[in-house]
Amino acid sequence: MVLTLEPTLSADAQESLVAQLRELRFKVTPVRTQRAAYLVALGPKDVDIRRIGALPGVLDVHQVSDDYQLVSRKWRVRPTVIDLGDDLRLGEGTLSVVAGPCSIESEAQMEAVMQHLVQSGVRLMRGGVFKPRSSPYSFRGLGLDGLRDFYRLARQYGLRIVTEVMQVSQVEEMLDYVDVFQVGARNTQNFNLLDALGQVDKPVLLKRGVSGTVEELLHSAEYIFSGGNEHIILCERGIRTFETASRNTLDLNAVPILKEKTHLPVFVDPSHGIGIREHVPPLALAAVMAGADGILYETAPVPERAASDGQQTLDFAESARLVEALQRTYLLRRQLAEDGLV
Amino acid sequence: MVLTLEPTLSADAQESLVAQLRELRFKVTPVRTQRAAYLVALGPKDVDIRRIGALPGVLDVHQVSDDYQLVSRKWRVRPTVIDLGDDLRLGEGTLSVVAGPCSIESEAQMEAVMQHLVQSGVRLMRGGVFKPRSSPYSFRGLGLDGLRDFYRLARQYGLRIVTEVMQVSQVEEMLDYVDVFQVGARNTQNFNLLDALGQVDKPVLLKRGVSGTVEELLHSAEYIFSGGNEHIILCERGIRTFETASRNTLDLNAVPILKEKTHLPVFVDPSHGIGIREHVPPLALAAVMAGADGILYETAPVPERAASDGQQTLDFAESARLVEALQRTYLLRRQLAEDGLV
Amino acid sequence: MVLTLEPTLSADAQESLVAQLRELRFKVTPVRTQRAAYLVALGPKDVDIRRIGALPGVLDVHQVSDDYQLVSRKWRVRPTVIDLGDDLRLGEGTLSVVAGPCSIESEAQMEAVMQHLVQSGVRLMRGGVFKPRSSPYSFRGLGLDGLRDFYRLARQYGLRIVTEVMQVSQVEEMLDYVDVFQVGARNTQNFNLLDALGQVDKPVLLKRGVSGTVEELLHSAEYIFSGGNEHIILCERGIRTFETASRNTLDLNAVPILKEKTHLPVFVDPSHGIGIREHVPPLALAAVMAGADGILYETAPVPERAASDGQQTLDFAESARLVEALQRTYLLRRQLAEDGLV
Amino acid sequence: MVLTLEPTLSADAQESLVAQLRELRFKVTPVRTQRAAYLVALGPKDVDIRRIGALPGVLDVHQVSDDYQLVSRKWRVRPTVIDLGDDLRLGEGTLSVVAGPCSIESEAQMEAVMQHLVQSGVRLMRGGVFKPRSSPYSFRGLGLDGLRDFYRLARQYGLRIVTEVMQVSQVEEMLDYVDVFQVGARNTQNFNLLDALGQVDKPVLLKRGVSGTVEELLHSAEYIFSGGNEHIILCERGIRTFETASRNTLDLNAVPILKEKTHLPVFVDPSHGIGIREHVPPLALAAVMAGADGILYETAPVPERAASDGQQTLDFAESARLVEALQRTYLLRRQLAEDGLV
């Protein structure tokens, strides 16, 4: 059960409300986000919800049959749209494109990508400075210094940046230099990191775990929301299966399933999802038709020379063509929706 | 190595050619299909291919580095298009739509579906009379009698039918009453069945195994082709993974990968691929953007009362909307291709 | 619900019994096996079972909450033991060892293996004459002629043979030359083949599907039992997962789970289960401690030169050591059971 | 390539050695652990290794063809044995038993378990105070206070403790109150945590990831070793597959494969591996025959009332029987090894 509280509710009044719910044998978690204050109350199913709704300070209340609560569409039907300012919104009603290299490598590389993105009308750039690598001997990113340069340059080009955070201590350090925190597929269930990201006011792009279920992804998002941050984007990026012809198996089933279960925006990363450069564009377009609110892909000046993930990275010509194809595909999806066909 | 033989080559001349290749330590498999005669020669890699090409009776010869040979695009670059007559072609350059119930249940059911398909402009109908079921106590289909009725009615409505064959002895019995044989996901590696289907002149729609790799699917197609039948359609229908939010995990990665590796048409079955009725349409459209040459889905008069698979079956209103959306999506894909964007 | 019928029940009396059950809205499947006659009745759960048990001709009756019925331990608590004569029994209370080459290749090969088995005290030999192969160009076995030789030689050496049947038409052809039919992992859901094996009086060793669940394996066994043959052995042989360090992932969890769910014997094939020769013995011993009733493994005179599966085949020295280790391990398991420790 | 350095080598001499290797185009990582100092040098394969071995300060040098280096058995053939003092050693040559509750809940619970363990001759106790939970609303453990109590009581009972660390900041906090750090299956690729654990002198029990490969597990161990801590135990605990009859699929194939590839001890956790209480013992015994150096399982006073994992937790009677069965099974394995049978 999720209770939205009246914005003017005093701390004392809230405490008294919590106490009443606990008397009714509910386990109560108070949540205060950028947008509002809520109580998540888990417990008896047989309580008359109108009685709860009539308690002083309660704006509205919803029973949620899912195990997760705040991220469920059973509670909040209207899609969450995240406003980054300057008319840049993420979520239903728009198709976001996030592009850039796997790893930030140098100023020259960043500027080349930024010029390409600006020319192509892409406003969000991805790029990692902390790189999770299977082997300790691989390139592990430029770190915080690289991030500061990345952020500074992005501002010059009018771009917003999405970049991966790997551990709790980085959240604070990175805070002033990111627009959107990315949680990678190996950290989807790093619960301490999710807790920490619940406490900051920057959007979080949360990737699905390498072998994470849709249900687990929603639970992980619930960590962030219940921690106090409701600006969350979910991202399908391929799961691990027996198939070895592709790097991962992009699970586009997850897109309409997630859109039904949650009000959060759903993005897709076809670069990791298939892992084969020439097949990234068709999968990106497929993701749009499956209902994705955004596409995240890798592009770099010379993919063959990238420090990581070169085999799944587009060059700028391919990237520019993809951006145009994405826009036309999204336009079709909107028209089909307007015509009542999807 | 695949050798295409001159159409006029005599049996004696072919035998002599085979003998020469065996002397060069090749293992030779002679293949005669509806279209042409070939030799598949496996063995030494260091033979000068021009020398082979110059042998009498050889029209052309290609080295094929894949383990499969006849289905490989390394040998035959031009896509295979299967002509069913009456201007009905399956394969690249068109988008085929195959729709119908999971199981054929009655004349009334069939006629209702047929009227809907004709109205919607769909020319191919699916429907099973032999149903593979996990439990021996489930409905196992109407059998051969049902097939005869199915075929007769389809002819009246001007429809072609696609229906599943489960065992060798059925191939002969069904032959006069099918337009396209379907091999189900549990029989993708039923090699005796594939052998038998290699010996008839009816197209075969070969579904990917529940846990079959792309590579295994191509090998299974090679069985049919090398048996003498080159009219094969491959069909992605979802694979088994750890995810339980959907019935299977539709692997759209397989579409561009297959299109690159083989000249055969590639269809997609989103009904089995996701197994959730309301999510079938977005996945069908996604499949088109991923590059599918055809879409196979389930529709029935009253899905809730279908003898099998009702939870993933569209009603006619949903089906009609999907057909229109598929056509518009395919049109966009063609335009993007013409504009050099995909 | 499973009803065991009185052995002396006439056909008329049985028909009348079936009619009464149908009146009670049960779907009834009559089953007659080597051992007894049964009725499987599916339908209403609220019928008083004592009333059914009191019907004339009913020896006993059990409600079975599983979807499968005849193979369930909820109906038959006592383990099924299959008697091959000459004091050779398969099932609980003994540890069966089945060893031999992947493929039967020649008389010399067979005789070498047979001598080794006799010396080691192994009484069951495996070996394939019909080989399911991913590629049509691979060696596909010696066929029926090879089987006749295999059977004749085995008789001379006092051995029983286990060999794979791949299609319905082979069942009849092979019947006089096999002691135990094997159904391979690609045919676990070849329902027509299971039906056909239900109609013969030879035991069937049914392998789990490459990606088959425990539940599906039990359903497939139900096909054979309900067809009329209750001499079935289940065999775990490794499933397909994301792990590539081994050929398959041997699922020893399946052993105690199957032993709990069914009265049928459970064997394990560690050769396919791990696919790495030097690691077959520890997995074989592990299978015994997990509760297996039998072990099936591959051995050949010169594994390196075997026509198939050489990389997972033991030589005779390794095989002899394994047989001794298996016996000592099984002895320990029995002692632990006697001492109430497992 | 791994170089073991002379213990007396000065910092200056080591630097000069590193410089020489870099001149030969090696990427060099200096490593100093509890036991020795090493250089990991990656790069050219064509350098004469004798030339490297002859450099001043080099005790020995080995080429390692694996991607991981320090954990590879190709470099260090002798198994790593970890000495906890008081004659308690973990690794080859002994069978370690680690038992205890999933979560530490109270002093009464801890003392009950401890008495049981002491009586059964078990010297290592597991128990979590930081619990990774899918949902933020689940019980998340008693935290640091609980750990201090756990450690204090364990000392009174003469037990060593194994407990999970979830994030970098806990490493320092927990250091004085743990005997062995456990890294859970969701943190196997939490590289920052692995880095941090490389910097402390306490053994680490590293669980395999839920969908982690054997190769990835070894790479993660390499993080810890190359960070400076070579006291690492690997632990197989079941992987995620399509099978839903068990919680996970215990992959005992991994045991002999890991024992071949690495010199580190290999433990098995059958409780998580199968997740069904009554089937934990047979899988534990199977793990011993597969070659495990230790078994980790869950036991609690009243499993039905445990705060987490009750369905896979043994009561004390079951646990006592298992300990005896484990010892007798391990004894057999040693005898078989002495007799040259495994």
From TrEMBL, chains A, B, C, D:
InterPro entries: Aldolase_TIM (IPR013785), Class-I_DAHP_synthase (IPR052899), DAHP1/KDSA (IPR006218), DAHP_syn_2 (IPR006268). The keyword Transferase applies. One of its GO terms (molecular function) is 3-deoxy-7-phosphoheptulonate synthase activity. It comes from the Bacteria. It holds the Pfam family DAHP_synth_1. Keywords: Transferase. Coiled coil: none annotated. It is an enzyme of class 2 (transferase). Residues 82-327 form the DAHP synthetase I/KDSA domain. Its EC number is 2.5.1.54. GO terms for biological process: aromatic amino acid family biosynthetic process. NCBIfam families: DAHP_synth_Bsub, PRK08673.1, PRK12595.1. This is 3-deoxy-7-phosphoheptulonate synthase. It comes from Hymenobacter gummosus.
